[in-house]
Design the sequence.
């Protein structure tokens, strides 16, 4: 695994980009920089959220990270720049971690130990409130996923996930929204609670009807004009 510590001169700029720290003054931000550790992870690198003795909280600045269950390796969600992950370590004892993370591409993260983060939250209420809100979003996302399982068929779940993924990770390219294809069909199946064969069938159908297009490297949502042209 390639992991390289970044220079301290870049720390302030990196933290400044996170909404979580937006209400802190410069002095508080500089204090955070004293505690912050930053790393660059190469594609495929494993990020240990629980070292056994101490857990860490991660802030993703660049790249994308897949969060999986430690025991089953089932994908739970995908973090993109501006997201926090490993926050469960703030509410668990060391050794009780249930998640592992993998860099889907070269990624840069800011890291605090769970103990450091708890001390910082005690000193800065706005930081504590921000982390609790993020934790609440995680619970809501889980609840929404459970509701989807009850009320939406597998095809709808897969299509909605693809739209979310391309919107969150993609950029406009020639009138369409395009994202790097970082997830395997197996990953998508786990994230939508379907089978890999169902994912294959749904993606093939969506491409045939002109809703999406994809190859080994990218996946995109076609513009309305492209979709019309395909049916002419």
Sequence:
């Amino acid at each position: 695994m390639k992991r390289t510590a970044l220079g301290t001169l870049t720390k302030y700029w990196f933290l400044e980009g996170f909404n979580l720290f937006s209400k802190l003054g410069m002095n508080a931000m500089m204090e955070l920089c004293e505690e912050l550790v930053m790393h660059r992870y190469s594609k495929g690198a494993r990020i240990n959220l629980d070292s056994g003795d101490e857990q860490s909280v991660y802030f993703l600045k660049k790249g994308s990270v897949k969060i999986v269950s430690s025991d089953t390796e089932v994908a739970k969600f995908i973090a993109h720049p501006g997201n926090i992950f490993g926050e469960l370590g703030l509410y668990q004892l060391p050794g009780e971690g249930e998640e592992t993370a993998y860099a889907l591409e070269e990624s840069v993260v800011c890291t605090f130990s769970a103990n450091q983060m708890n001390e910082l939250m005690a000193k800065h209420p706005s930081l504590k409130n921000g982390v609790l809100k993020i934790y609440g979003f995680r619970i809501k996302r889980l609840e929404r996923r459970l509701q989807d399982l009850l009320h939406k068929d597998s095809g709808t779940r897969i299509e909605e996930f693809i739209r979310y993924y391309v919107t969150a990770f993609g950029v406009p390219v020639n009138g369409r929204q395009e994202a790097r294809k970082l997830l395997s069909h197996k990953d998508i199946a786990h994230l939508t609670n379907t089978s890999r064969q169902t994912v294959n069938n749904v993606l093939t159908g969506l491409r045939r009807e002109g809703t999406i297009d994809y190859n080994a490297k990218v996946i995109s949502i076609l513009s309305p004009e492209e979709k019309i042209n395909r049916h002419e």
User: Anything to note?
Assistant: Residues 1-6 have pLDDT under 50 and may be disordered. The CA atoms of residues 175 and 223 lie 6 Å apart. The helical segments are 11-16, 26-35, 114-123, 125-151, 154-169, 185-192, 196-208, 224-231.
